[in-house]
Amino acid sequence: MLSYPVNLMPDSNGTLLVTFPDIPEAVSVGDEEEEALLNALNALESAIEIYFDEKREVPPPSKPKKGQRVVRLPALVVAKVLLANEMVRQGVRKAELARRLDVHMPQVDRLLNPRHSSKLDAIEAAFNKLGKRLEVSIA
């Protein structure tokens, strides 16, 4: 799991401003803490799309400070982040991954879209084509 620490600060409008120390592109607000954290997940996923589009590695989360709240990415999004990061590390572009998987580009685009509910076996196949293995565990 990737759990990103957040900073919650009251702003001048009486709402809570949410920022991520590790992902400065992700910023959100909410009237109450629960709403702010829910909106923060959406902001985090949007920021991850920016990293994917710019072909940059998504930074790993830092260790939260004692009592600091975190936003946990869903498991499928974690798999997509790890896949995109591996592609960046290996210098494999989407077109090359599509060729290796013998699929059309829109399928790879969906595979790297944090908001698309891709099938886990498709992500696993992509990792295999990169010489990696996807492992799932329960904590």
From TrEMBL:
Domain HicB-like antitoxin of toxin-antitoxin system: 4-66
One Pfam family this sequence matches: HicB_lk_antitox
InterPro entries reported in the protein's UniProt record: HicB-like, Lambda_DNA-bd_dom_sf, TTHA1013/TTHA0281-like
Record GO terms (molecular function): DNA binding
Name used for this protein in its record: Antitoxin HicB
Species: Caballeronia choica
Recorded name of the encoding gene: hicB_1
